[in-house]
Amino acid sequence: MEEVILLAPEIITDRLILSRLSVADTEDLFAYRSLPEVCRYQSWAPTTLQDAADFIESLASTEFDTPGTWFQLGVRFRGSGDLIGDLGVHFMEDGKQVEIGFTLAPALQRQGLATEAVVGLLDHLFGALGKHRVTASIDPRNTASVGLANRVGMRQEAHFVQSLWFNGRWVDDLLFAVLASEWNRRH
Fold it and tell me: How far apart are CA 85 and CA 103, in angstroms?
């Protein structure tokens, strides 16, 4: 039986390529996603290489821009193709709204790479896909992600107090958003 490869965008920025995760990414994904400083704010954290492989495999049949699904894009260096992070993209049921999440290996933070990746993704979502609104849900203790949301032009719309049960306790949740009309005015 012939293997079917589902289409996903390849978004190219100055230094990065955003593309579908593959089984070849298992070790790199595990290396940064299993770090305590990364998984403390994540709803998914692999404890073994097999967890990372299973996660990638679970996404294999998902097509980009399918309402009601999550899609994970790998963030790679353009020259080497090395995986350095990933972007979660949740396509809402209405087909016009998207929730995003972002993870970057700690050793590569504070170099503008996450900002570049998220701007590339937002350009694609608002441009090629014509989405209306993009949101991000962020733990307020995750100051790096709050800063990233602000840098890319998302506005804080809400601060929900103790609204999520996470890792055995109630935590706050910040909701950031940007509309296509706002994005297009600035870009």
Answer: 5
